[in-house]
From TrEMBL:
Domain NIL: 12-75
One of the Pfam families matching this protein, by short name: NIL
Protein name (Swiss-Prot/TrEMBL): NIL domain-containing protein
Domain of life: Bacteria
C-alpha cells in the first residue's frame, strides 16, 4: 500500500447485494469517508429483486479509501478493480 496520507484514484466495480438496496451505500462512501466518488455506470433495478452494480471512480487518501473498501466488503459487496486506472489498489 502507498503512503496512507497520499491521494489515490482507483476504479472499482461493485456488486451490492439486493438485501442492501435500502442502504445508502454510495452516499456513505462520500459522507463517512470524505471520498470523491464518480459513478461511471450503474445497473440497479427499481423493484429491488436483483443485485445492484456500480462502476465507480474513487479518490481520496490511501488509508481512507482502504477503510471504505473494507466497509463495502463487510456489507458483503463484491469488488473488481480496474488495474489499468488504478494507482493505489
Amino acid at each position: 500500500m502507498k503512503d496512507p496520507e497520499s491521494l489515490i484514484h482507483t476504479e472499482v466495480k461493485i456488486r451490492i447485494p439486493k438485501a442492501r438496496h435500502p442502504d445508502p451505500v454510495i452516499s456513505n462512501l462520500i459522507n463517512r469517508y470524505g471520498l470523491k466518488v464518480n459513478i461511471l455506470g450503474a445497473l440497479l433495478g427499481a423493484n429491488g429483486q436483483e443485485d445492484g452494480w456500480f462502476d465507480l471512480a474513487i479518490e481520496g487518501r490511501a488509508a481512507t479509501v482502504h477503510e471504505a473498501l473494507l466497509d463495502l466488503v463487510e456489507l458483503e459487496a463484491d469488488l473488481w478493480f480496474n488495474t489499468d486506472a488504478d494507482d493505489g489498489y
